[in-house]
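Question: what's this shape?

___
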Amino acid sequence: MQNAACQEVWCIFMEWNDNPFIDSEEVKRLSSTMSEDELESRRFGRFKSGTGLVYKEFDENVHVIEPFDVPPEWFDKISIDPGLNNPLSAHFYACDYDGNIYVIAEHYEAGRGVEHHAKAIYALAGKLGWHRNRNGMLEALIDSAASAKTLASSKSVCELFYDNGILTNPKVDKEVFSGINRVKSYLKNAGGKPRLFIFKNCVNLIREFKSYFWGNEGDKPKKSKDHALDELRYYLASRPVAPVAAKIKSTITKDKEKLARRIKLDKR
């Protein structure tokens, strides 16, 4: 009986292109925003289990570049993953007119307080000529956990940074799986094009890319040596998704729609 039931089970694979009503140009534009892994799941419906390196798309020969003078109009955001005993990671991010992201400066240090980290971040900002808000403060994204107060302090990490001249925004997207896919899409999109470049002096971010592995269960990375990668995710998750351009209707399509509306009115 069980064998007979098994014979009635089969599997059919479909993908976007099997639907004749989906515009091919829209598929192309959407695919360009996804990583190869995400396309496997979303376009082809193939389940994947992570093994080995999380960011196997990372290639030092492609993504690590020599520093250059970045135009101030490219300066975008600072992102912070706070830590006291664990390292605090902060990076400065720039974005060019084509949407390519550049990681241009790094502060990464453990065992120091917020005042020390704030001074180090300000020193880097001064060297870069980084922009400030109307109150003369630096602004940064930060892990949402930084907004909570602890028994060890009457102030949250966000408040402590504010006292030291840095206005932090803890409203970040911390969803790990979608964040990882977002990073992957910047390392290498479906067309094989990289959009994330790291100055070679950001050594800790580069090191974490090379030592970030999936856990034994395969659906989550090992929670170790990921402070820089966490705040990279926060930053990339804050970037707007490229809008899909509106489909331009041809004159023939417009005439067909007009005729269809007229027929519909005549039938009333």
Summary: The chain has a mean pLDDT of 85. The domain at 36-238 is CATH 3.30.420.280 (Nucleotidyltransferase; domain 5). The radius of gyration is 24 Å. The beta strands are 64-65, 75-81, 88-95, 101-109, 138-142, 166-169, 196-199.
